[in-house]
Amino acid sequence: MSTPKHIVSAATIVLNEQGEILLIKSPRRGWEMPGGQVEEGESLKEAAIRETKEESGIDIDVIKFCGVYQNVSQSICSTLFLGIPTGGELTTSSESLEVGFFPVEEALEMVTWNNFRQRIEYCLNEKLHPFFVEC
User: Fold this and answer.
1) Which of 127, 98, 102, 130 is nearest to 117 (CA)?
2) CA diameter of the chain
């Protein structure tokens, strides 16, 4: 029997003081929340903080765990957090063609990849926390 190969990721919905959401424009998926694969020896929270900094230039504090999306067929487990900005400057990277804070309704219209919009909506609805979605 072979060793299972799973991908674990961490993404963060970052809300500034104006209630705007931080989005990055990925070369592959378009507008989305910052996030990515958890590295060996790294906690989920640490990965969320690191990925946000790498992709947007923004330093954050994670304030809440929201839930999990599991893509069963692709063996991907995606964890989602809420965060607030604590510093840094908006900066693009090889993983982000554009970055910015956007009003919630505008941000939701911009996010079109798979169920990423639903992930944001679930994170913004505290009544659903913690959630677990299999897809």
Assistant:
1) 102
2) 52
Which element (helix H / strand E) includes 89?
none
Q: Domain containing 101: what range?
A: 7-134
Residue 38 in domain: yes
18: domain CATH number is: 3.90.79.10
> pLDDT in tens for each of the 135 residues of the chain?
566 689 999 999 999 999 999 999 999 999 999 999 999 999 999 999 999 999 999 999 999 999 999 999 999 999 999 999 999 999 999 999 999 999 999 999 999 998 999 999 999 999 999 999 998
Q: Residue 43, class by beta-carbon neighbours within 10 Å (0-12 exposed, 13-18 middle, 19+ buried)?
A: exposed
Residue 2, in any domain of the structure: no
Q: How many domains does the chain have?
A: 1
Determine the 3-state secondary structure of 128 from DSSP.
Answer: helix
Does residue 130 fall inside a structural domain?
A: yes
- Is this model's pTM higher than 0.85 or not? yes
Entry field: residues in the chain: 135
H helices of 31-90, where? 44-56
Bridge partner list, 22: 101
